[in-house]
Design a protein that fits this description.
With about 725 residues, this protein is of the alpha/beta class. The longest helix is centred in the middle third of the chain and has 23 residues, at about 410-430. The chain is built from 29 helices and 17 strands.
């Protein structure tokens, strides 16, 4: 078995040297939105330090041993290769310079070359079921068609992940300026490195994968930091403080790296990237040891902050004051994590958690910072420990929870900080602030707290009118957020409506009242198509239920759906869900009322209803809210015909055609004054997809590609892309 390993930049990975094939025995593309956004954030963070290459792990490939054959099966690395292809495709779609767009295109698709006997082909081919979908929509550059798809157009979870991850990454990268995107693309191809391991033996490749991922126990960054700290302590005290270090970090489990990243931001609030050895050791640990001792680091930094980090991640595993628990649980609802650096700072510096000499938890006292080892100390050395079988989100555990107490004044201030933190985190998540923007806010909050500024005077905790408007536009429109945020929004609205936090069941789902797909006997079939299309993905059409969408897939009338949604008692705990039990029918007017109700509940809860001039923003049109806004970019949001007309890119009365020469079929549509498409039979449809479906009688997911202008043959997808690019300028 021949093995080779080479370090290469992405510009060489996505080159003529390799054609990657995902074999049938591999799992499908399974990365979710959080994984994609983490990759985008990590790459953007790394790009801020151009002098340091960013290592993105290894690829394990199997070839046939022929040095002239560049086709390789991917044994390890599919998720990263697919996600990187999506990122490059987005950068290509956003690029207005044709030469640069061609350069990016060459990373995804290789042009045919007859001299070398090469046919045009993608550099990465997914498994058979999803290969055509990935090529048609991502690799061939039909992102507009992808953004226009409905969930019912997707045939697999992998396709759903591709669509959702592409939209999420597009939204994240759309916040960059053109120059920033070009710099990011340049860094990506030149400074992001991968180790490519190749072999000619499939069984050998799996053994390599096994060895690299499953065997051995290399030193972790925490081990390196511990060794450096303990070596700086007197020999007589090393055993004690070594045990104290272990008792602090062992409960973190596999989250040690995440903890140190959060700790770095908490004690050194700067916009730095997330690399422990280059980040924490050089920017915090070494700097601390220049002025303090290693013992003081363990006692005053490591132990308190590790304790606080455990608390915020398992609040129900500790006996905390109810208000503190409630706000920590609310914060943990968010899909983003920047807030954790502020929360652990507050628990340590305001709540005095784990701080020597503060109000102690129910645990043995900790020795002073310079004290000698205490043989009689408990196994945890006074460090509050979560129960071993403690579970998050209110699960019961057999051990008595560790009691954490606060002075009354400290508790009141801690709750104020957590409440303010939850508010800005909610507004930023709803407004789709980028990771960089969220970290920038956290840095400012920490600086304000360090300087003792009152919350009302903290710029970090302030919400601007632009923040309010952006959040409300997102809330009132189609829910272009992940499932976690949809659930969070409904949890908050139900809590406010209930007057106190609703006791949450172990499992709860977000389901639609009006389903995406209906049959001829559905109670919703009489609704105009445009009305159904309008409401499907809006928050007013969503409720919390113990049931899930899969269980209700065959229920397409209101009565059976409402009965299934409210069947379980735990579903009826939520007021907005329980309302359905008293309804015999669902109408667009009822959905409108629910929409307004939820928007008002959340606007009041996060205090974004009124601007600085006391104008009620919930009563203002979306057009007014977005006028002049720097953050009101289109992102991946579905584009309407009316938006394109208003931009002057389509003209009412203009003719469109869809030709299928092989089948001898041809359909025509006319653009109407009110932003719809009218077919020759007189029927009017709200979107190109709906018009294509009505014309052919079948689902037409690529509708933007099939409709063309009669005048010049231009595809609607090109028109839509022009509109979207204009919003990025």
């Amino acid at each position: 078995m021949a093995i080779s390993a080479n370090e290469k930049p992405l510009g060489k990975v996505f080159s003529t040297d390799y054609q990657f094939i995902i074999p049938a025995f591999q799992r499908a593309y399974s990365w979710r939105v959080e994984h994609m956004l983490q990759l985008v954030d990590d790459l953007r963070d790394a790009s801020e330090h151009p002098d340091h290459p960013y290592f993105l792990g290894s690829l394990i490939l199997v070839g046939d041993g022929d040095p002239n054959n560049r086709v390789f099966q991917v044994i390890d690395g599919q998720q990263r290769l697919t996600s990187l292809t999506i990122i490059i495709a987005i950068l290509r779609a956003m690029e207005t310079d044709h030469d640069l767009a061609d350069n990016l295109n060459a990373l995804i698709l290789e042009e045919g070359n007859r001299l070398f006997g090469r046919a045009a082909e993608p550099r990465l081919t997914l498994r058979e079921r999803d290969a055509a979908f990935f090529r048609d929509y991502v690799q061939e550059g039909n992102l507009e068609g992808l953004f226009d798809l409905r969930d019912t157009d997707l045939e697999s979870n992998a396709q759903r992940n591709i669509m959702q991850n592409t939209k999420a990454a597009y939204d994240a990268l759309s916040s960059l300026t053109q120059d920033e995107r070009r710099y990011f693309a340049s860094y990506l191809v030149s400074n992001v490195l991968m180790i490519i391991v190749t072999t000619n033996d499939l069984a050998g490749a799996h053994r390599i994968f096994d060895v690299m991922n499953m065997r051995g126990m290399p030193l972790t960054p925490s081990d390196v930091l511990k060794a450096k700290a303990i070596s700086a302590i007197d020999i007589a005290d090393r055993e004690y403080y070594g045990r104290r270090w272990d008792n602090a970090v062992d409960p973190l489990g596999d989250n040690i790296e995440t903890f140190f990243n959060d700790l770095l931001l908490s004690i050194s609030p700067k916009k730095s990237h997330r690399m422990i050895l280059d980040g924490f050791q050089s920017k915090a640990f070494d700097a601390y040891l220049e002025k303090n001792t290693a013992v003081e680091f363990i006692n005053n930094i490591l132990v308190p902050y590790a304790t606080a980090w455990n608390i915020i991640n398992q609040p129900h595993a500790y006996d905390l004051p109810q208000e503190v628990t409630e706000w920590l649980v609310r914060l943990d609802d968010f899909p983003t994590t920047e807030w954790k650096s502020v929360a652990i700072w507050a628990l340590v510096n305001i709540g005095k958690v784990g701080v020597i000499g503060a109000v102690p938890p129910a645990a043995p006292a900790t020795p002073a910072a310079t004290a000698a080892p205490t043989p009689a100390a408990s196994a945890s050395d006074g460090i509050p420990q979560p129960p071993r079988n403690g579970r998050h989100s209110g699960a019961r555990h057999s051990h008595t929870p560790q009691t954490i107490t606060f002075r009354q004044k400290d508790q009141e201030q801690l709750v104020k900080v957590l409440r303010a933190l939850e508010r800005v985190t909610g507004v930023d998540n709803l407004g789709k602030a980028s990771s960089s923007q969220r970290r920038q806010r956290v840095v400012q909050i920490l600086k304000d707290l360090d300087h003792g500024r009152k919350l009302k005077k903290s710029t970090g905790f302030s919400i601007s009118d632009e923040d309010r408007k952006t959040a409300l536009v997102r809330l009132r429109g189609e829910m272009q957020v992940n499932d976690t945020m949809k659930k969070l929004l409904l949890l908050r609205a139900n809590d406010v409506m209930n007057g106190s936090p609703v006791v949450r069941p172990r499992s709860i789902n977000v389901v639609r009242i009006l389903p995406e797909r209906i049959g001829p006997n559905s109670s919703f079939v009489t609704w105009p198509e445009a009305t159904r299309d309008h409401w499907t993905d809006r928050i007013g059409n969503m409720v919390l239920s113990a049931a899930n969408e899969q269980q209700m897939a065959k229920l397409d009338s209101f009565g059976p759906r409402a009965e299934r949604i409210t069947e379980a008692p735990r579903s009826r705990r939520f007021p907005l869900t329980a309302e359905l039990t008293s309804m015999t029918d669902m109408t667009p007017d009822v959905l409108e009322r629910r929409q307004e109700q939820i928007v008002h509940l959340l606007a009041e809860y996060w205090q974004i209803r009124f601007d600085a001039d006391n104008v009620d923003l919930t009563a203002v049109s979306d057009e007014t809210l977005t006028r002049g806004s720097r953050r009101a970019v289109q992102g991946s949001k579905r584009i309407t015909i009316m938006q394109v007309i208003d931009a002057g890119l389509l003209v009412p009365g203009e003719k469109l055609v869809w030709k299928r020469p092989r089948l001898g079929q041809e359909w025509f549509a006319t653009v109407t004054n009110d932003g719809k498409l009218q077919l020759e039979d007189g029927s009017v449809h709200a979107s190109p997809t709906a018009a294509a479906k009505a014309a052919s009688g079948k689902s037409a997911g690529a509708a933007l590609n099939v409709w063309r202008r009669v005048s010049n043959g231009q595809k609607l997808s090109d028109v839509w892309q022009t509109y979207r690019l204009n919003t990025l300028k």
